[in-house]
Every structure is written in C-alpha cells, then in structure tokens.
Amino acid sequence: MTASNEYRFQVNLSGMIQILSNHLYSSPKVFLRELMQNATDAITARTEAEPGYQGKVRVELTGTGEQLTMMVEDNGIGLTEADIHEFLAMIGQSSKRGQQALLDGETSFIGRFGIGLLSCFMVSHEIVMLTQSAKGGPSMEWRGKPDGTYTIRQLDTQLSPGTKVYLRCTPDAAHYFEPEYVKEALFYYGALLPYPVTLYHDGAQDVVNSETPIWLTDPALARSRRAEVLAFGERLLGEQFQDFIPLTTASGRTGGIAFVLPHAVNLNAKRSHRVYLKRMLISEKAENILPEWAFFVKCLIWTDELQPTASREHFYENEKLEEVRSELGDALRKGLVDMAEGQTERLQKLIRLHALSMKALAVQDQAFYAMIHRWLPFESTRGHRELGELIDEGETLYYTGSIDEYRQIHHVASAQSMLVVNAGYIYDKELMAKLPMVLHNVQSEQLEPDEVSMTFTDVPPAERNQYYDALRLADSALQRFRCRTEVKGFKPEELPVLFTLSQESSTLRALEKASEQSTDLFSSVLDSLSSNMSSSAGYSTLYLNVSNPIIQRVLTSPDNQMTPIAIEMLYVNALMMGHYAMSKQELEVLNQGIVRFIDWGLRANTDRKGDA
Prior knowledge:
Helix content: 40-55%
Number of helices: 20
Largest sheet: 8 strands, mixed
Structural class: alpha+beta
Mean pLDDT: 84
Strand order of the largest sheet: 5-4-3-6-2-1-7-8
C-alpha cells in the first residue's frame, strides 16, 4: 500500500468575499452591522468579567475623497496576540472556544462564525485593527488585505483596553461613508443598545441612540407611555401607527411591541418584523417569528435566546423558535382578549380594519371566536352586517359555500326575505359552521342553490295543465343540457328564470368544462369520468317564474319554432346571471339565438314597411 500525503485546503479569500457580497449578505451596508456586533460582543465579554462596567461605541469619519476613512472604536474586552492568531487567522472560527459553542444558542455573544470582519472588504481594500486586551499585555496592530495576507505587530505605545477598526472606503463604496447615511445606519442597527453609540464628524458629535426606552426591559410599561412608543415605532418602522400590543414570553428573554398596521393587509402579504438579538438588529424581514394569523401587525422584537443563521439576518427554524413564536402569539391573543373585555370600541376599530386576521384567529381559537363574534363582518342578503346584528334577527343563518353560489341565489333569496350569508370568502364558511358550537342558541345551516326553491309558490295542477304543451317543448329543448323545467311563482317578478343544480350536476358540469379545455389525453380521462357519472347524476333545474310577464307569454302561446329558442335563450341568460361557466355548446346557443332574434326583428320591420 502506498503512503498517503496530507494536504490543507487553501482558501481563496477574494472568492470568499465575492460569496459574502453576492450570496450571504443582503447588501454591502451590513459591514457596519458586523463592526457593531463585534463591538457589542467585546463589551458583553468585558461586562461579564467586570459586572457593572459601562460600555460605549465611538464611530468617527475623517478625510474626503479617496482618503475618506471610518474608525469604529469600542471599550470592550480587546484581544491579546494569541486571540488575534486564533480569531482573525482562521476563517470560520467561532469567537467562543469549543465546537459546542458553535451549536449552542445560549451564548452571550452575537458573532459566532468569525466571518463578520470579512464583510468590511466589500467596502475597503484594507482593514486595520488596533487592540488592547483588558487582560493586559502589549497593544497590537492587525492589518488584513483581500488577497488573504495579513500582518501583526506590537505597538510601541500602550492603548486603552478596547478595539479600533479603521476602514478607508473604495471609490464605489463612498455612499456608505457619508455622515447622514452612517448616522441613520447606526440608529437602524443599534437603536436598542443599552450603551451610547456616538458619531463624530466635521467637529460635531451625535449620540444616535441617546435614550434607551425603559419599556425595553419590561414591555408592560409601554401601555403607560403610549405616545413615546408610537413615536419610537414610527422612527424605526417608518409608519404612523395608532395602536400597539406589548409582547413578552414566560421567561422574559424575548419581548416586543406589536404595532397594529394602520391599513388593511392582503392575506398574501409578506409578514416582516424587525428583530434584535442582544439589542443588535438581526433582521428587518423576519417572517417566521410570529404565527401565520398575525399579519395585521408589524413588530419590534428583542431577544437573547434565538439562534441566528450564518448571515445573521434570520433565525434557525428549531424548537426554541417554535416555542418563542407560540408564546408571542399567545401574548398577542391575550392583548386582543383584554380589549374584548374592557375596551370594546378599540377592538371594534381594529376588527373593522383587520377583519381577515381576526377571522383567521377565530377559526383556530373557539374561545376567542365566542368573545369577538359580534363584531365580525359578513356579506348577507340583509347587506354587509356584523355577525351580532345578523344573530339578533332571530332567524336560522343560512350560508352558501362559495361566492358563485351566493351570486346565483341572492336576488331570489332577498326577495323571499331569506337571511343568507355569503360564506364563500376565506374563513367564513368555517366560522359559520362553527357558530352553533360557540353559541348554542344560534342555528346555522349551509344552503345549496337548489334549496332556495323551497320558498317558491307552487302552481295549482289545473293551471299547470294549461302549460303542458309549452313545458313539453321546453323540456325537449333542454334535454341535451341535462336540464328540466319547472313552473313556480317567486320574487322578484322581474326575474324570469332561475337556474339551480345539485352537487352531482355541478361536478358533472365542471368535468365537462375541464374536458373541453384539456389536452386530448387528459380530456379522454375526464370524458370517461363524465360518462360514468352521467347515468347517475341528477338533472339541473330551470325554474320558470309564472309571475313574470315574459314567462306568461312563453307558457300561454306555445310555438314549435319560437318556444324552444326562447327557452334556450332564457337558459343561457340564467347561466350568465348565475355566473356559471358555459360550455361550447351553450355558447353556441347564445350566439345563434342572438343572431336569430336580430334576423326576426329585421324581417318584422321589413314586413311592416311593406304593408305600409
């Protein structure tokens, strides 16, 4: 056996920086966040070693043009020469010793991958770091270049404990070094830091996070500082909010403020929240920190217990995140329950604006549904009403399973004074079905379109016999559409016909329509299913309104040529009124019927002129 040789992987640092720029980080601007996080880690480490120690961060901008330089200084723990070799010479090395620290979400440090400093190469051709360890030893200088080389030397002078990082901007990164941009970025990333972050430029100085809100440590205190909280939310999130709900978990290690959005939100809208880890911004687009139903709020969340991904812009989906998400959801739900019990006007206003979110939660939480049901809005034959108003009518609440079914019957149902709710919108059908379980004295029942005919007036047998010839011609004309006719009296009188179909007939129509629009292979499969159903599927029904003058003329003056055409035209008109998708055969009837009636009208006009 030949001896094997051992080799070491060589890291192409310029290629690594390209990966950081194009794939790991969302923008070059995160270099400032990485520097802030390193400073935060250093201050955290020194605070742990020296309880009560007061940290601070200083950012200074000097020079112009190609000499524009940024210096970020912290008074944290600093690095010894050994630390520099361990942490800055090894890409991927954790800033906390040991493999377990890489996996441990309970670390006090934010930086865990040792690659944050490399992000600075996206805006500078060189990184210079001066550092003095609080543990003693000489002050050190580290210089790194994007080609992977670096130098380390001891300084002749002794610096104060802490670290300074110097960056000289590249020409295409000058924007990221402008004072106003840096000031906003520092606030953006470090607004919640518990120590001052000060920007120095052109002889001026600004403390960008001048006052840490007291309610950060106890979100419950936010209720007594309403104006302050709303102003802080507007500064950070860029919207004018009118209301909020404090959030906290049982451990107190995660908290936040859920700001109620001042506008209605689409169900498919991204749920983005701003999350801070150890008081440093981790993500402004965290989508998985709250339950799915909480899309009516935009949150500020701060935590010290979740595990960030490598880019430090999101969190790992693990048991801890699931636990925190559930507890934050419970806190948000409790805030709504408290409103229901003591601030009903406030809750009503919220529901009117975010009914969809409230319905989503009510579907999941029956107790919450019972508490807020009165204010949930629904479309009905009595207009757009709150559920409490509909319940007060004292009638059975009939509801349709789809919007199309409601469209098909709402004119007739309204005229018959039937109370029908359109439950075709998302969550509405489930809520109407659950209503009797929530309120035991209320009845709800799903209504099929063909069941509306139960309210119609029957035609006496003697009168029906008078229409025998017309009905025979009508049934014959609609036989090919598997539809039969019935004579009934119903309101409104202006409506000549109403088309209804059973569930089986509806399925058959859907199969036939799909077959027409499918490929030959798939169409043959659908045709096979249709043929199996056609022998057992019930007929649809075209109800002729005996109270309508046009129907009276059709029924009392049967004509072998005119009656079938009139019935066919009334049939396709009923399909259009009911928003049914028409088959090719039905569309052909519509087109031919229109042409025939135009032709007859022109002929009649010509005949009148000839007689004159």
